[in-house]
Design goal:
Elements lengths: L3 H17 L27 H12 L2 E6 L2 E6 L2 H10 L11 H7 L12 H14 L1 H4 L3 H15 L12 H19 L6 H21 L5 H4 L12 H28 L8 H4 L1 H6 L4 H32 L1 H15 L13 H13 L9 E2 L4 E3 L2 E3 L4 E4 L1 H5 L47 H18 E7 L5 E2 L6 E3 L4 E3 L4 E5 L4 H8 L1
Parallel strand pairs: 2-6
Antiparallel strand pairs: 1-2, 3-6, 4-5, 7-8, 7-11, 9-10
Helix pairs in contact: 4-9, 4-11, 7-8, 7-18, 7-19, 8-14, 9-14, 11-14, 14-15, 14-18
Family: Belongs to the cytochrome P450 family.
GO molecular function: heme binding; iron ion binding; monooxygenase activity; oxidoreductase activity, acting on paired donors, with incorporation or reduction of molecular oxygen
Pathway: Secondary metabolite biosynthesis
Length: 512
C-alpha cells in the first residue's frame, strides 16, 4: 500500500491539473469538463448513444469529450466520419488499449479489439476471402433453410396469444445463430449439443462486452496497474483463467467444424472454403479458432437485434409491411422467396437499408484511435485520441434523411422505384457496420441474412400488436431500448404473427 499511495496521488494531481488549467490544445471544442470526472456526469444516465446525439445537436458534428483516462473526439456526421475514418484511415485505424478485454482476456486474438498491424492484416485478408460478396453466395442454402426454420418456429401453437414478448428475440437469435453456425462450420442445423455451444458463445460475447465498457475494470482506468505482480492483480488471474477456458472452447469448435465438413460434398462453410487461405497467410490454429469464434459471436447478436427492429417496424408501420407483401406476391406468387428474387424486389432491399438506418443496433460502433497527430478542419487531434463515429447521429442526420425518426424505405428508392445509388459520404449498405479499414468484414453476409429472413417473414405472416395481461392491445415503444453497452436492442413488446397461408407448415417442411 505504501508503494501504491504516492503513485495514486500523483495520478490524481495530474488529472486535476489537466482539467483545471486552460487548455492549449487544438482539439475541437466540446462541453465543459469537471476535475477528475471530466464529462462523465453529462453522459449519464440515459443510453450513451442518445446522450452523444443530443451533444451533437448542441456542439456540432465534431466535438471533444474528456473521460477519466481518455480523450474522445466524436464524429457525428457522415462527412466527418468519412473524412477522418475513411480518407485518413492509414492513421485512424488503431484501437484503444483494452487492457482487460483485449490484452488479458483475449490476448489480442479477438478481431474487433486487435491492434492494427501485421496479424490484423493477415486475418483481415482471410476473412475477406471467406465473406466477400461473391464468397457469400455459397452460404445462400444455409441462410434460406434457416429462414424457413425461423418461420416454422414462429407458427402459433395453438394460438397467437401464447407468444410471449421474450420468445420473439429468442427465436430470432436462434435463427441467426443457426445460419451463422452452418455458414462458418458447415454441417446440419443446430443440434441440442450445438445449442449449448451457442449459449457459451453468447456468454463469451457478454463477458467481453462488459469488460470493454468504460470504467468496467480498474486496470483500464489506470493502465499502469498492469505492471503489478500477479499476486497483487486479482483481475489478471481471473482474466487469464477466462482466456484458458475460452481458448479451449474455440479450438474445440474449430475441430468440430473440420469433422463436420468431411461429410459435406456441397455448401461448405467458411472454415472449409478458406482452408487454403489459412495456410497461405500462415494463420495458426489458435488464430483460426478465434477468428471463426469471434465472427460467430459478433454476427449473431447484431443480426438478431436488427431482425427484432424489423418486426417492431412492421407493427408500427403496417402500410410499409403491406407494400412489401404486395411486391413479394407479385414476384413470388405462392412460393417462398429466394435470393434469385432479390433484384426484382428493390422495395425489400430498401427495407434492409432502412432497418439498419432507423435503429442501428451497434449505435456507437467500436472506437478507433489516432495513431499519429491528425489535422482536420483546422484542429489537431493528438496521437492516442479515441475517435468515435456516432452511427446513430449519422443515420439520423436530417441533412440526409428528412424526418429521420420515421421508418420509410422509399427514401432509398428513386422515382422509378429502383434502389438509389448511395449518397456521397454516406455508404448506406455499410454505415451500420463501422467505417474505414475497420469496417465489419461480415457485412455482406449479415445483409444477406436480413434480406432472406425479412422476405420469409413478410411472405409468411401478417404483423399486429400484441396484448398486455389485461387483454389491451399494446404498440411497441420505438423510443425504449435495452442497453447492452456497445449494442442496443428494442425493449420487449408483445406481438401477434398471423399466418398468411393455411399450409405454411407443410410447404416449408417439404422444402427443407
Amino acid at each position: 500500500m505504501s508503494i501504491l499511495l504516492p503513485a495514486v496521488l500523483a495520478v490524481l494531481l495530474a488529472v486535476i491539473i489537466y482539467y483545471l488549467l486552460p487548455s492549449r490544445s487544438r482539439l475541437p471544442p466540446g462541453p465543459p469538463a469537471l476535475p477528475l470526472l471530466g464529462n462523465l456526469p453529462q453522459l449519464l444516465p440515459s443510453p450513451l448513444f442518445l446522450r452523444l446525439h443530443s451533444l451533437t445537436s448542441k456542439y456540432g458534428d465534431l466535438y471533444t469529450l474528456r473521460l477519466p483516462g481518455n480523450t474522445i473526439v466524436v464524429l457525428g456526421s457522415a462527412r466527418a466520419q468519412a473524412d477522418v475514418l475513411d480518407r485518413l484511415g492509414a492513421v485512424t485505424s488503431g484501437r484503444p488499449r483494452f487492457v482487460m478485454a483485449g490484452e488479458i482476456m483475449t490476448r489480442n486474438l479477438l478481431y474487433v479489439f486487435m491492434p492494427y498491424g501485421e496479424r490484423w492484416r493477415r486475418l483481415r485478408r482471410v476473412t475477406h476471402e471467406g465473406f466477400n460478396v461473391r464468397a457469400c453466395a455459397a452460404y445462400y442454402p444455409f441462410q434460406t433453410s434457416e429462414a424457413a426454420n425461423l418461420v416454422l418456429s414462429l407458427l402459433p401453437s395453438p394460438s397467437p396469444s401464447n407468444a410471449s414478448p421474450q420468445s420473439l428475440p429468442d427465436k430470432l437469435k436462434h435463427a441467426s445463430a443457426a445460419s451463422t453456425w452452418r455458414s462458418l462450420y458447415s454441417g446440419p442445423s443446430l443440434t441440442a449439443e450445438d445449442e449449448e455451444r451457442v449459449r457459451r458463445v453468447d456468454q463469451v460475447g457478454e463477458d467481453v462486452l462488459k469488460a470493454s465498457m468504460p470504467l468496467a475494470s480498474v486496470v483500464d482506468v489506470f493502465p499502469w496497474l498492469d505492471a503489478l505482480p500477479q499476486w497483487a492483480a486479482p483481475w489478471r488471474r481471473q482474466g487469464e483463467a477466462w482466456f484458458s477456458r475460452t481458448d479451449a472452447f474455440y479450438r474445440e469448435m474449430l475441430e468440430l467444424g473440420r469433422r463436420q465438413e468431411k461429410g459435406v460434398e456441397h455448401h461448405k462453410g467458411f472454415i472449409a472454403s478458406t482452408a487454403d487461405s489459412f495456410d497461405r497467410f500462415e494463420v495458426t490454429e489458435q488464430e483460426a479458432a478465434w477468428t471463426a469464434g469471434g465472427l460467430f459471436g459478433a454476427g449473431v447478436e447484431t443480426t438478431a437485434a436488427s431482425l427484432h427492429v424489423f418486426v417492431q417496424a412492421m407493427i408500427l408501420y403496417p402500410s410499409v409491411a403491406l407494400t412489401a407483401q404486395r411486391h413479394i406476391h407479385a414476384v413470388c406468387g405462392g412460393r417462398p422467396p429466394s435470393f434469385d428474387d432479390r433484384e426484382r424486389l428493390p422495395y425489400l432491399q430498401a427495407m434492409v437499408k432502412e432497418v439498419l438506418r432507423w435503429k442501428p443496433v451497434a449505435a456507437l460502433g467500436v472506437p478507433h484511435v489516432a495513431e499519429e497527430d491528425v489535422e482536420y478542419r483546422g484542429y489537431v487531434i493528438p496521437k492516442g485520441t479515441l475517435l468515435m463515429g456516432n452511427i446513430w447521429s449519422i443515420s439520423h442526420d436530417p441533412a440526409f434523411f428528412p424526418s429521420p425518426d420515421t421508418f420509410d424505405p422509399t427514401r432509398f428508392l428513386d422515382e422509378k422505384g429502383q434502389v438509389k445509388e448511395p449518397f456521397p459520404d454516406y455508404h448506406d449498405d455499410t454505415v451500420a457496420y463501422g467505417a474505414g479499414r475497420r469496417i465489419c468484414p461480415g457485412r455482406d453476409f449479415a445483409n444477406n441474412t436480413l434480406f432472406i429472413d425479412m422476405a420469409y417473414l413478410l411472405w409468411a405472416f401478417d404483423f399486429a400488436p400484441g396484448a398486455d395481461k389485461r387483454g389491451m392491445q399494446v404498440l411497441p415503444d420505438p423510443d425504449k431500448y435495452q442497453d447492452h453497452g456497445l449494442m442496443i436492442h428494442p425493449a420487449l413488446f408483445p406481438y401477434t404473427l398471423t399466418p398468411r397461408r393455411p399450409d405454411l407448415r407443410e410447404m416449408l417442411a417439404s422444402a427443407l
